[in-house]
Amino acid sequence: MSATLETDEHKALRAAVAALGRRYGREYLTRTVAEGRRPVELWAEAGKLGYLGVNLPEEYGGGGGGITELAIVLEELGAAGCPLMMLVVSPAICGTVIARFGTEEQKRTWLPGLADGTRIMAFGITEPDAGSNSHRITTTARRDGADWLLTGRKVFISGVDTADAVLIVGRTEDARTGRLKPCLFIVPPDAEGFQRRPIEMELSAAEKQFELVLDDVRLPADALVGGGPSHAFGSGGEDAGLLQLFAGLNPERVMTAAFAIGMGRHALTRAVEYARERTVWKTPIGAHQAIAHPLAQAHIDLELARLMMQKAAHLYDAGDDVGAGEAANMAKYAAGEACVRAVDQAVHTLGGNGLTREFGLASLTTAARVTRIAPVSREMILNYVSHQSLGLPKSY
Ligand SMILES: Cc1cc2nc3c(=O)[nH]c(=O)nc-3n(C[C@H](O)[C@H](O)[C@H](O)COP(=O)(O)OP(=O)(O)OC[C@H]3O[C@@H](n4cnc5c(N)ncnc54)[C@H](O)[C@@H]3O)c2cc1C
User: Fold this and answer.
1) Does the keyword Signal apply (predicted)?
2) Of all residues in the chain, what percent carry a pLDDT higher than 90?
3) Spatial separation of the C-alpha atoms in residues 12 and 8, rounded to whole Å
């Protein structure tokens, strides 16, 4: 028996998801996007097989695993050319936040649907005037009797058109100090005062991005994740907002790493297949080291990024939120960079064909860059490591 980093269960999950991914493949996703549709067939089948909710608790219909397993699902679908970006948002961020901090009622209402894919939740934190500086968000909830009134703007929110609710990060005023503190609200997209506008993106992806305007959106008390301050669970709701937010961010980063590694592997595989066959001198172009070495480097970078992603997922699943924070940031950085380089090199390896529709690689160049900027940019991760890991002073 050879030593291995992954358990037999993980390997079996990887193989099973890879087989599902191969049955759909890149062509399926390209066709779906061209038709202006969403990959509902793949989403439904993956949900039925239990892959979309592997990380969610068993008692609410999930697989009882962790972010390790969900990352395997996303990586393998991506490697097959059909990543489902909403996996990052719906079960990983929103599912995690609700499973860890939701009231019993919120868990029963949302988790079974998020787990089998019949319900989808989007996640909105980014604001036009705050961007990377999430301390500056101004979406604010104020009390109106037992209800909340939520007002603000969000931008680049993925999948709102597919979502049964959007988990919106806002702020409420601390009754004692008057300071604004973060809070998470479950907002139905058909609520009065909630408007969405699609943003035209240069991306060939199944998920659309939206700008949201919330104008005094009236929400019942139980729209607040964890319930209000008077809730039986006491520590939930308004006081727990920051904790809830951070709980969702580590899975988000691990999953973005999985998205990036899957896409990078897909591009690299296409390039290697091509480089083995394409011959314009005496040997296939893959025999030229100028072609072979960058592909080998891309492979090494993706493998290294995966190791860090596995570390981050392992720490997170073991309950070490702080350790997972550093590793998840590093994994997302490494994976984003590895993905951008792998896709760039793959496009280059195919020469002119790298830019054709038929080979479908050029469209990945913009998609790959998403992993460098979202959900947290390369520079903000370098800032985090500079300050948190190295103890260097801040410039901002
Ligand atoms: C396809 C896509 C999907 C997305 N989906 C979602 C979603 O579902 N939900 C959601 O809430 N958000 C989503 N986002 C938003 C994403 O998280 C933001 O785009 C990202 O956080 C960066 O914010 P920004 O675009 O405002 O850039 P800015 O904050 O304006 O940054 C612009 C540039 O300045 C750099 N920069 C900023 N501050 C510093 C600093 N202190 N030091 C050094 N450099 C700095 C950044 O690294 C970046 O390169 C999505 C974005 C994209 C592109």
Assistant:
1) no
2) 88
3) 6
